Amino acid sequence: MNILITGIHGFVGSNLVSGLKLHHTIYGLDIVSPPKDGVVKTFGWNELEQIPPIDCIIHLAGKAHDTKSQTNAHLYFEINTGLTQQIFDWFLSSPTQKFIYFSSVKAAADSVGESILTEEVVPAPKGPYGESKRAAEEYVRERGRDWERERNGEGETRRGRDEEREGDKEREREGEKKVYILRPCMIHGPGNKGNLNLLYNVVKKGIPYPLGAFENKRSFTSIGNLSFIITQLIEKEISSGTYNVADDEPLSTNELIALMAQTLKKPNRTWKLNKSFLQFCAKAGTLLHLPLNTSRLQKLTESYVVSNEKLKQALGITRMPVTARDGLRKTLKSFEKL
């Protein structure tokens, strides 16, 4: 199968190439096009018409979430929304049958509190990252529906005979395009250099973690499970739809730090300081413009649990192949080489 991956030089793209290149022919689409092992050729965004016939597009390219809020808002929409519109329009005009779009849970909700995020939530993203991802999702859905109506000749008089109607349905099934909108939570794996790596280095240096009194739970997505999901979507006939992507088990920050300490063979320096005292310090930090403020304390201690039940039902499985702890252990061990 010929597969086109956009943003192929990124962390997720590189990992998907490693898993898919043994059984599929991989092409890339990126802002830069140096040779990459396992990729036949990488094209620039102005070279869409030169791309050979493709069976499936995996659209990863986008502007990552800037936790320091230093990115101009228009760049998120220019890249996350604009590039998605461009590649999806190309998909609809091509014979390609499958389109996999990597959105984000932030397109649905910036925070979930003590609830569990499902696909039924009414999207209410906050900030340009989530809003741009949400705008891209809406474009994919609306443009896809318009294309389906045009293809099916909505409003035209249908033939009267039963055998002709059955023939129409068969032709519709043959020409049907599958569109998957994936909303992964934090993806991690070998080569990842995000917030997980920052926390790992804090534990490695023996710096105490003072927020142990907050028992939050967060969902993660291991690259192993993500690669499995993509393979299933490519090789099987799964229903189109919007799906959350997460490991089965959420973990608390305390559990994550304990796992890091275990991997590093270092003592677990988790301090359970008084919550009220920390909240008072955070309020003072807000007034005095200190690093620890109310907003940052909330981000560090809030829960964000994501349900993957809809996706597992679509794939016909009861559990993801990689447990959250096993996936994290593999990622943490890779940090030793960085």
Structure description:
Helices cover 43% and strands 14% of the residues. The chain is α/β, with parallel strands linked by helices and 338 residues long. The strands form 3 sheets. It has a 7-stranded parallel beta sheet, sandwiched between helices. It has a two-stranded parallel ribbon with strand order 6-11. Helix 5 (195-204) links the parallel strand 8 (186-188) and strand 9 (220-222). Helix 1 packs across helix 6, helix 2 runs parallel beside helix 3 and helix 8 packs across helix 9. It is globular, with a radius of gyration of 22 Å. 33% of the residues are buried. The model is unreliable at 155-174 (pLDDT under 50).
Characteristics of this structure?
11 helices; seven-stranded parallel β-sheet; 11 strands; alpha/beta; globular; 43% helix; 338 residues; two-stranded parallel sheet
Question: Low-confidence segments, ≥5 residues, pLDDT <50?
Answer: 155-174
Taken as a percent bin, the fraction of beta residues is 5-15%
| Gap between N and C termini | 34 Å
Order of helices and strands: EHEEEHEEHHEEHEHEHHHEHH
Tell the overall outline.
globular
Q: Pairing-aware structural class of the strands and helices?
A: alpha/beta
Number of strands: 11
Mean pLDDT: 90
Number of helices: 11
Gyration radius, in Å: 22 Å
